[in-house]
Predict the 3D structure of the following.
Amino acid sequence: MKLFSRTDDEKDEINKSIENLINSFQIYNGNKYSTDFPNIVNYIRFYNPLLNDKEIVNQENILESFKENQRYFTLTNMEPIQELLDIGEEKDNEGSTTCFSEMDLPHLSLDNIWDSLVFPEGIKRKIIGYTNSLLKFANSSISNDIVASNKFILFHGPAGTGKTSLAKAFAQKMSIRLNTIYKRSILLEINCHSLFSKWFSQSAKLVSQLFEKVLNTYAINKNVMVFVLIDEIESIGLSREKSMTKNDPGDVVRVLNSLLTNLDKAKSYSNIIFIGTSNMDNVLDEALSDRLDLSINIGNPTPNAIYIILKEIIEELISKGILISDGIMITPLEDIENGNEESLKLFKKCELLHSRNISARKLRKIPLISFAETYSEKMTILSFINSIAK
């Protein structure tokens, strides 16, 4: 359950308004409400990741759950800060280079991204389970010497499948869950490929400097929760066996050893979580893979996922007046067997797109391409469906 307010003041008034809402309506999982609340509330959302999207939640259970799991938070809209590292060489006339971006969480730009990402059900369940386990073990002061945890997860799979978006959404969700423990949460985003490709000969030194800055500037403050997103981690975590094909395998090994050493050093910090992404499978060094708490493959969307995404796109275009509905509604996925002609045709298109291994990134470009090819200002739903995957 999520509750967004501009301030923590007048919580009693907020709680009373929410109880009145719960007692007045049937609440559907994931629905967003924005009426009959005090002015200090922007919106609330009732959400249980273990429920089906359209499952009706018992009012009594909602009230009980709300009292135990309410979350008050403020979304920031501050621009990310670019942090620099001094590399001791002339670059851009300053002898420094951008090493990562710093973003305060929860951030307005990441609001509801978690809910908008469509993956097979097991993926989000696994992430939520990992989150719950982390919190449970942290609250119970479980010794890291007895139960090992590097607080390091990896999302890997083809390009364009939403790995980076999922990583940021995970950090956003965790920052909200942890805001009663930590006064501040931040996301530090490192793009390994863009950074280390420029300074490969100094990569091992850069890794050490990066970790020193992350640990001694941010994680040293126990009131701050730090999420470190290491994008394209294969750039610095390549297996030693595969590094033998590189021009200078010695540099690759030095970078890897620096990464492993610093990850081990970071284990003593309870307020830091590393999130890696990789476009390649089975290329990371075994020693790095052993340090992962969780490794999740993010593949291209299934026909069901494609259908859900396209249905969402169609509904958005209708709401903005770009698609003409003519009274036609796209059938929910769970009712597709009894769906109307347009919905069945859409699902056939989804199966065709899946056979072509379309990525989620390309999938969301379909409306732009369809309208560009037809030179139309408006289209009917059927015309739009016919334009897909010709």
